[in-house]
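Study this one:
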Amino acid sequence: MISLRNYRLSQLFKTFKISSFSSSPSFSSCNSLNSFKSHKSLPPILNPFKIHSRHIKTSICHYGRFVKDQKRPEPKTKRPEDFAVLGIREPICRVLESKFNIRKPTECQKNLIPTILQGKDLLIRDVTGSGKTFGIVLALLNKTRNQQICMENNENNENSENNNYENYYENNYNYSKKPCITSLLTVPSRELAYQIENWVRILLSDTGIPLKSIIQVVARTDSTDESQQIHDLLNSPPHILVGTATRLHDLMNGKYLNFKNLKTFALDEADHLFRLPRKHATLKDIQNRQLHPKPTELLAQYIFSQVRPQIIVSSATLNRSLRYYFKDNKYTENPVFIDISEGTLSPPTIEHHCLLISNKEIKNLTSVEFTWYNPFIDDRLPTRNEEFGDDDDIMLDSLVGAIELENIKCGLIFVNNQIKLTNIVKRLKKFGVETKELENSFLDKNIKGLPWNHALGKPTHKLFVAHEFTARGIDIPLISHVFILGMPSSSIEYLHMSGRTGRMGNGGKVITFIKEGQKRLIKTLFTLLKVNPAPYPFIQ
């Protein structure tokens, strides 16, 4: 008895006039599968495309050979929001989800990663916590490794005297390819540099690739560590070199750096690295700047004198003067300008508070009524309370009170650059508050000493103390609170200090403690940043 399946196949072969079930049947009446689909003579019950459509597609091969039926595996479709669609390799995508708990890129990363991989010059501006630095690192990791051709003298060649001039170089020199620095990432602080190295260490943890062959950090530390940096740099040039501007300038003067094969030159927090004169700077300031350029300027001149690499400029406060600086110096060619901030300076998920401290009481800034000082109308100077400093016990006591009232997952305490962090840590310990210097956390060579423990999924300490200038780019997950002790040096620095919380769309709270005499200055700062500080609920 013939089976139903064989009966259907026999009807199919009769339709196509296939002579037999041989391994190489000949198709005489149909040359394509589409014409077979248009055949309507078969009854519905015997129509193979309603019953065996998937088998027919896999059975009819290029050579007309009939193979055994097997179901073709469905291809894995990539979602539009995946990192793989942007050009990130699959092993890195898996680590992003398993160890960083990141499943899809931010809006900023969707735009910058493909542009970097295409080799275009790029200018990026977005709010703090949008993943600019992390996106740049991911893109640089996925760029092709550059190699340089080295020519070594073959001194052991005994027949070199008999060689003619044409074969001299071929017989006396060996040509080999050696890896070289493909990308250079310049950052404003060594804390940020070591944080980037830690990111790459985690991303490559399952690959078995030596970390120093992929990324190396050069920064000013102790003499022993700096000597080791030079040794590693000369013996094993990395794929990505991350360094501070001052340390790179030192290595440049020592002729330890060769950028002839450099492909990408990235500048993170570029406005801080260049620190161009202000818009209304005096002629004297401009002349002094021309006589004493910043290390980043000298580094850029040195690189572009050797090669024309792709340039990436990133900052949350990337201003117009800096964009024109790169254009006027011909560092960029038709750059892509990505501005996702749309005029927003501070993330809307951050809650801002400001407290005025005096010898007698603590007040909310919003509860203070005062008029703006106008020097053309009022001859009196604005009053200032200079009886105590930013690290006085009155300020620390107010800080400790706020820490006790808040439910802190992880917090950052920022102080003035002139204040010693070790003294703040010791004095806060007397108040019963345990803290750790953020700088020492990143300089600890043991990965367990870093401020974030990826194995446990939580920060290593509850509170960290840091200087104002280290705020740029530092990313510690689950930062819920930022405490600013004293008047910020500028509105831009306040923006970057407050931006350590409220990252990646999460909420956060920023509490600033200033002296009562500085209320006009802080009010102007908030006005420039378009920030409306809310009343602190525990203070009248």
Residues 361 and 411 are 25 Å apart (CA to CA). The chain is about 35% helix and 15% strand. Residues 4-59 form one domain. The radius of gyration is 32 Å.
